[in-house]
Write a structure and sequence with these properties.
Layout lengths: L1 H58 L3 H23 L3 H5 L1 H29 L5 E6 L4 H17 L2 E6 L7 H7 L6 E4 L3 E4 L4 H10 L1
Helix pairs in contact: 1-2, 1-4, 2-4, 5-7
Length: 209
């Protein structure tokens, strides 16, 4: 009787471990799949935008449509950033996979930032764009992010947040703007500000640009 009881407990434990592993596997697959899906959609939208711009240069521009396309792309990247910023993301995805996805995310952000510059050149400026370099576990960067959230709410600015010094392949833009510390901002492609900036300072620049 005791052996049957032990066997029954063993079966229950085995089933529990199997179901736990299955559930966790599905959780990781959904998280990974969701991030990958957004990345792929973002890359496709960026390529579509480039094709649209080439057509516009040949057949005439449709600036409203192009701006809507980039706005949708920015929102996708915002959602992806939130997913990667979750406290459990690094643990859930694993260090190497998390690092790869984050690099791809930052590259897509920079690519979209450059596409906004192209839109400005082709259609004239009808939007505000802010490049935000931050450091993790840095009080000034955290406070700057909170100020920028207010700027987004009040002005509809497009903010691209990139972790300073995260990877060698991302440093070309830091070098281009001469960014050597964080937090740092580049407002509307040409106004560089280093150190923590107040809401009023950013507001004044946006209103005068």
């Amino acid at each position: 009787m005791r052996s049957k009881s032990r066997f029954f407990v063993f079966v229950l434990l085995s089933a529990f471990i199997f179901l736990l592993g299955f559930g966790l596997g599905n959780h990781f697959a959904l998280l990974d799949g969701g991030i990958n899906k957004i990345l792929k959609e973002s890359e496709l939208n960026a390529e579509s935008f480039l094709v649209e711009q080439q057509l516009s240069e040949t057949l005439g521009s449709n600036c409203v449509f192009s701006q809507e396309r980039l706005s949708a792309l920015s929102e996708q990247l915002w959602d992806l950033g939130k997913m990667l910023d979750k406290e459990s993301a690094r643990k859930d995805l694993g260090e190497k996979w998390y690092d790869l996805l984050k690099r791809k995310f930052h590259l897509m952000q920079i690519k979209t930032y450059v596409l906004y510059k192209k839109l400005e050149q082709n259609c004239g400026k009808d939007f505000d764009v802010i490049l935000f370099y931050f450091k993790r576990d840095n009080p000034d960067s955290k406070q700057q992010g909170e100020i920028l959230d207010r700027i987004v709410d009040d002005f509809g600015a497009k903010v691209f947040a990139v972790e300073f010094g995260y990877a060698p392949e991302l440093r070309f833009l830091e070098q281009y703007y001469g960014i050597d510390s964080a937090p740092a901002l580049v407002i509307n492609f040409d106004k560089k500000l280093e150190g923590l900036q107040s809401y009023d300072v950013i507001k004044k620049i946006l209103e005068n640009s």
